[in-house]
Automatic annotation (TrEMBL):
This is CPBP family intramembrane metalloprotease. It holds the Pfam family Rce1-like. Residues 125-217 form the CAAX prenyl protease 2/Lysostaphin resistance protein A-like domain. It comes from Flavobacterium shii. One of its GO terms (molecular function) is metallopeptidase activity. The chain crosses the membrane at residues 12-32, 52-69, 89-110, 122-143, 155-174, 180-199, 204-225, 255-274. One of its GO terms (biological process) is CAAX-box protein maturation. Coiled coil: none annotated.
Length: 299
């Protein structure tokens, strides 16, 4: 029986895997942006289309880097980016994200706090579309693909859900107009919902699609502020004013009470559907193995 060396123990340690995975993805992201920017500056494309193509290039290279790195590092097939079922997960995820965001906005509209100022050209959606899919891919790779997945292997699904949701919410504290309450909203909505979306499919395409559709509908279609960031010009120019409980205030609709309710309801449904896909903490599995050995010896 081969003994595990100290080097192997260090490399297999969850924190090491998370740090090295982060470094590989961050370096790829930065270098890909610089490469794409220099290449596209030589083209006659306007700024919006340059950003769109840049987003596609950066996202493709980021996914490729993740797949290549973890295939070599963990010596496995990276099934979370498998093409099998990808189209189904993308379409379903986009529908779910779009419906949840539309329901959130609908409550704001019913409350009389949503006013359409103008309807803009379709080309106005290019920038929010680009931002939405680039952010969704980048954040889901880091949070669900690296942090959640690796922690889940050791501590189980429930603990990993809580930890990754807290981290995801805390990351939004650096956003403009963010508060501890708005960060908690993000943790409860997206942190739990998207983590469960990954558990249910064991694919990153589903979480990415939900994340993308939620953000794009919010900024690209409804013209609302997203996570406290500057309002971008989308299909609609809108004015959202009223109770912060319903509108989310300066942080945007995802800071509203109805967003929490709708996303938690979706999370509960996904949890019920994922019951047989939850992973137990490793120490519980070891305890079970020990108990089984003792029982077998007695028999």
């Amino acid at each position: 029986m081969e003994s595990i060396t100290t080097k192997q123990r260090v490399l297999n340690f969850p924190v090491t895997r998370i740090i090295l995975g982060f470094l590989a993805c961050f370096i790829t992201f930065i270098l890909a942006q610089q490469f794409a920017s220099k290449m596209l500056d030589l083209t006659p494309l306007n700024r919006d289309f340059r950003n769109l193509v840049k987003g596609i290039i950066v996202s493709a290279l980021l996914i490729s880097a993740y797949v290549f790195f973890f295939r070599k590092y963990e010596k496995r097939e990276v099934t979370e980016f498998s093409s099998k079922g990808a189209i189904k997960y993308i379409i379903t995820g986009m529908l779910l994200g779009a419906i949840l965001q539309s329901l959130t906005i609908l409550i704001i509209f019913i409350n009389g706090s949503f006013k359409i100022v103008s309807i803009n050209p379709i080309s106005n959606m290019i920038i929010p579309f680009t931002i939405a899919f680039t952010v969704a891919i980048f954040e889901e790779i880091l949070i669900r693909g690296i942090i959640f997945r690796i922690i889940e292997e050791k501590l189980g699904s429930y603990i990993s859900l809580i930890i990754s949701a807290i981290i995801f919410g805390a990351l939004h504290l650096s956003n403009p107009s963010s508060t501890p309450i708005s960060a908690l909203c993000v943790a409860l909505e997206a942190g739990l919902l998207i983590g469960l979306a990954y558990i249910y499919t064991r694919s990153l395409w589903f979480p990415i699609a939900i994340h993308f559709a939620w953000n794009f509908m919010q900024s690209g279609i409804f013209g609302a502020v997203t996570s406290g960031n500057d309002q971008t010009t989308g299909l609609l120019t809108t004015k959202i004013v009223g109770s912060e409980l319903i509108t989310g205030g300066d942080f945007g609709p995802e800071g509203s009470i109805q967003a929490i309710i709708f996303c938690l309801l979706a999370s509960i449904i996904l949890l019920q559907l994922s019951k047989d896909k939850l992973i137990k903490p490793k120490w519980r599995n070891k305890s079970f193995e020990v108990d089984s050995i003792i029982i077998s010896k007695k028999i």
